[in-house]
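Re: that chain you flagged

S.,

Sorry for the slow reply, it's been a week of failed gels. I finally had a moment to sit down with the sequence you sent. For the record, here it is as I used it:
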Amino acid sequence: MAHKTDIEIAREAQKRPIQEIGEALGIPSEHLLPYGHDKAKVGQAFIAGLADRPDGKLILVTAINPTPAGEGKTTTTVGLGDGLNRIGKRACVCIREASLGPNFGMKGGAAGGGYAQIVPMEDMNLHFTGDFHAITSAHNLLSALIDNHIYWGNAQDIDQRRVVWRRVLDMNDRALRDVVTSLGGVSNGYPRQTGFDITVASEVMAILCLASDLADLEQRLGDMIVAYRRDKTPVFARDIGASGAMTVLLKDAMQPNLVQTLENNPAFVHGGPFANIAHGCNSVIATRTALKLADYVVTEAGFGADLGAEKFLNIKCRKAGLSPSCVVLVATVRAMKMNGGVSKADLGAENVEAVQAGCANLARHIENLKSFGVPVVVAINHFSGDTETEIAAVQDHVAAQGAEAIVARHWAEGGAGVEALATRVAEIADAGTANFAPIYPDEMPLADKIETIATRIYRADSAVMDARIRAQLTEWEDAGYGHLPVCMAKTQYSFTTDPARRGAPTGFDIPVREVRLSAGAGFVVAICGEIMTMPGLPRTPAAETIRLNDEGQIEGLF
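Prediction finished late last night. Pasting the structure tokens below so you have them in one place:
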């Protein structure tokens, strides 16, 4: 029997009016701003009124390094939320919004899969409630104001060669990575080289996801460094009067979006920073709101645990005062085989030896996560071709690490297929054994923070930084930015900077190519190896098969 596609399953969902979903969480309908019948934003005044309530338990879902075999991190996040509600717990899911770029590029949708999805799936993967458009507009307003400031006499004495603020677009468009603007003569300004990043890589996106309220948002937007003067001093967004208008554009985008799972359980979908170049977690305001309204909040971090979970724990939790009770690490038998050297074409055949070899990657992630003082459970996201022997091999390997691996069948069975995992996760969260702490202190020098992550999380021999980069980090420390956490930008496919090196490699260095100061977001970005801030489309983009059918329904979003 042919499996239904994700979009076919989503289309058959029996959705409830969003007011009912809000009421189940204790949000009165007057505090919901509906966008149609099945999605709404939660009002700032209501959120502010929750401050004195106790917090629920925070559960982080992360994964091994992604492989083409697929891991299913979002699917597991959604399934676990449904599973917790199914066993009688009051649980809420928090994930990021999808970027248009990857939707039309490689990846298709980002709302879960199979019978563990968030709906409305089509809306979430397209324009949703307009948050990314608002972020794009606010970012590009600042770009326009900078060039306009220089055009009308440059009162701030900006060095045009040192404008660091680029433009953004929520699309994979490699042609825009490096461009020259203001061609065409005197009336168009002064030509200069710049470029575009994808919207999810914008510092405005990172700020929206870390800000606690509108006042904090405006303060952080004003703190962004957009250029340097001829005397090398920084020019902030507030110096050219941009932060007020940017905040106005982001007023609604700052409010979390409430939607529902296929099983009518509440989900907040808000924010979407890149997990390479930024911290890759949904918004602090959505997570905090969910923690006030639910007893268990299941959230995910981008990519593998070496990137997403590390940033969630070292950046988001540190900045927002959050403390996870349990971490769920997602793995698949297929991905273990790929890590063990099997090609994608041969994944169907049983290969216990490859599974055992590939478990080295899983074991390293377990060890890393435990070093933050949080208990870890492995979720084996089940595929129909997995054999009992292969599953047992993963479970044995995980048990040897002092953790347990539980098979989860949410993709095929929804919440019913994940009851065992949900029960165990709730037990661990309730036991209160987590003793969370970030792996480096605020006062550690920036270069040492980079070195700590490279050696302790990636297991590199060292982080290689030339004298220019070290001098830049020292300069930022002298300017008062030394207390900031670091955000490592590297490939998601490997612990190294080489995407082809799977498993748990040793005997390598992490080359730091460049460092950037995100003064508004509140972190220093270390760009390692070859990382793009504007992706390109693949040879055959998903966009080529996305269309409306005769019934006016969308086809081709996965």
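What I noticed first: Residues 6-129+253-431 form a domain with the Rossmann fold fold (CATH 3.40.50.300).

Talk soon,
D.
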